[in-house]
Amino acid sequence: MTQLVIDNLTVTYGSGTDDALVACAGIDLTIDEGEFVTIIGPSGCGKSTLLHCMGGMLQPSEGGVFFGGERVVKPNPRNAAFVFQDYSLFPWKSVGENAGMGLRFAGASKADAAAAAAQQLDFVGLGDFADRYPRELSGGMQQRVAVARALALEPKMLLMDEPFGALDEQTRRNLGMDLARILAEAGQAVVMITHSLDEAIFWADRIIVMSARPGRIAEEIRVPAPRPRDLAFMTTQPFQDIRVHLFEQLEQVQGAVAR
Amino acid sequence: MTTTTIRPGGRRVPRSMTIWSMRLALLVVVLAAWVFATTVGGVSPLILPGIAAVLESFFSLVVRPEIWTQAGITVLEMLAGFAIAAVVGLAVGFLLSRSRVLVRAAEPLFAWGYMFPFALLYPLFLLWVGVGLESKILYAAVGAFFPIAYNTIRGLRSVDRKYLQVGKAYGASGLQIDLNIKLGAARPMILSGLRIGSSIVTIYVVLAELLGSNLGLGHEIESASSRLQIADSYATVLLLIVVTVILQRIMEYLLRSRHE
Amino acid sequence: MSAGNIRTLTGAAPSPAEGAQRAKRSRSAAAALSAERRHAIYWRVGVIVVVLVVWEVLARIGVVDPGFASQPSSILVSAGELIVDPRALVAIGETLAAFAAAFTIGTAIGIVLGMAFGLNRLLRDAYFPIIMLLMVVPKSVFLPLLVLFFGLGSAAGVAFGALLALVHVTVNVVAGLDMVEKKYYDVGRAYAAPSWRLFVDVIVPGAAPGIFAGLWHGIRNGFIGVVIAQLFVSTAGIGYLVRLYSNNFQIDDAMALTFIMAALVIVTGTVWARLEARLTRWRE
Lengths: 259, 260, 284
Description:
The structure holds three protein chains of three kinds.
Chain A: E1 2-13, E2 21-32, E3 36-40, H1 47-54, E4 62-67, E5 70-71, E6 80-83, H2 95-105, H3 110-123, H4 139-151, E7 157-161, H5 169-186, E8 189-193, H6 197-203, E9 206-211, E10 216-222, H7 237-258
Helix pairs in contact in A: 2-3, 2-4, 3-4, 4-5, 6-7
Chain B: E1 4-6, E2 12-14, H1 15-38, H2 51-62, H3 65-96, H4 100-115, H5 122-129, H6 133-157, H7 161-169, H8 174-211, H9 216-226, H10 230-254
Helix pairs in contact in B: 2-10, 3-6, 3-8, 3-9, 4-6, 6-8, 8-9, 8-10, 9-10
Chain C: H1 7-10, H2 16-61, H3 66-69, H4 72-84, H5 86-119, H6 121-136, H7 143-150, H8 155-179, H9 182-190, H10 195-233, H11 237-247, H12 251-279
């Protein structure tokens, strides 16, 4: 069942002036319920812009985004909830309060938010940390809190902007496994921007490769393996084949930029 | 945890003992100078009374309830001045911060206000508001308003955009953003402004009471001086120091930075 | 998951096309920013002008009693007269002389103490808390005592200004020395730098911002201390004049003198801040 439709999306900064910059041009994309889509591409290809449009944070200059048939004009976290690149937990609030903050903003009462937050923190494995403060947590743990914050709203879709960008290799690996399990259990659709080829393939049902200037969809690659997957998947032939293909794609796209 | 220092002779001494004996040494030097000045040095008791006289005066002072009433008045002036400056300063800071242009316009104005030598205006204040409590409270409030408002504005101005993004992504209302995000993010600077404000309030109230008042500890100091009861004057100065230090410490504790 | 990721592909230097795009974007951002700056200046000037005009109008129509609060026009006139009035000039001279003495004494002692405390742990732990305590105490409380000691002349002003300057300078010099990051210090030691080298090349530049702040506080507090003492003691200098004018209801003169002093302080402060920013530019 189709959930999110992006129709001929174009985003132009400073339109009408000499300095107009086209971030995305004519993007068409649909995302189905429960589907996991990763987006990968060189810098400046508009992936963040696209994600922000999907979440209603940004209005397109042309075309539109439709969630469940309705046009998206402002953020509705119960439809699509964000997980930001640097977690953006409020350092002046406790972990528990942070996890419940999304619900509070959406209008829930303190008690309801606290209950949901506690539940989600348990779900991501941080149930005992509710009274701590973000600065006492490692990067990986902070990221989990950010995910809990988003999940507390029981959104139909998660929008993740390079969620592992700031983490080191080991943490990425561990967190990756946990999140794979969590997201599979929760079952919502996910759109994730990543810089890592391996992540792009490992997580996704579908990989969107974007090219830059202006941002366009260069190719969609399907990953037919069933989810959740374990690390062994990365050693299989299908994985390697896709990886080579993706690598070449990105070279081409990057080459187009450099010219 | 005490670390040890090795003194000449090889004896190991706990560090805290060294520190305290140094302080004791300083105290002894000061007291010795005092005694010397008032006895052999021939300094008039109208300038520097003997230690005994001052101590005696101090202890008879602190048991008199009237002096504590005066102390209470002084403290009341400080607290009232601070409360007014804090409320107005914060409100102005938050209201102005809703407009980027206004904030930029106002910031240097408040910085100048902070640099303004308000002491010079006090005689005029006396003319305008009279010699009673109100002039001290108002004077202190005006003086403390500027650093509080300035720090509030600067704190709100430097709220990291990424926190505001979170608010936007989760559909937060303007008020929710103010209370949950801006206030929290700006809190270190706001608290710093409030601490500066509380110290300014103390300074201004004391000055105002010394320059012209009919109530409060400052007034007591002056009137004792004019009655040539110098020992009483010194004793009251000591009391004022103690009271203001305690008050300041309490304020600093209440306004300390947390969780950052 | 291995580290094979797209960064190695895009890690190359930006192409000329990309560079031009970036320049274009930052130009329009800069234009927007300086427009905002201009608007801010208009607002600032506008508010000041409006306040002055309203004040003037209210005074002239009698809502605000000019005998009480004066009006901008007469303040301006007084200011003009004062600048050439010999009594005012003498008072300014006396104040500046007292200030120079207070600043020199207070700052000299403050720097010495600050260095001693900053460089010697033992001295610092023993005696610095006393200075910090003095910081917290509203030092005006010592005015009556200083007057008793030094009499009614300008010596009391010098003493008070010096006391204020001393405390603030010491605290700031210590803070400045604390700021010298240990790692730079360690580098010097690792290369067996002689102490004086360490001092000149590492400690002084590192402590410079703190020392500058300290000097500024020395200036500001030295000046304020002198003026406040003059207000209190009332026989010479600007403080005395302001008090005299106020008590004689010469509001125009009192306010004019105050504003002249305020302008001086504000200008000096702003110039100093610029100077400090220029000299410590390497930091950021």
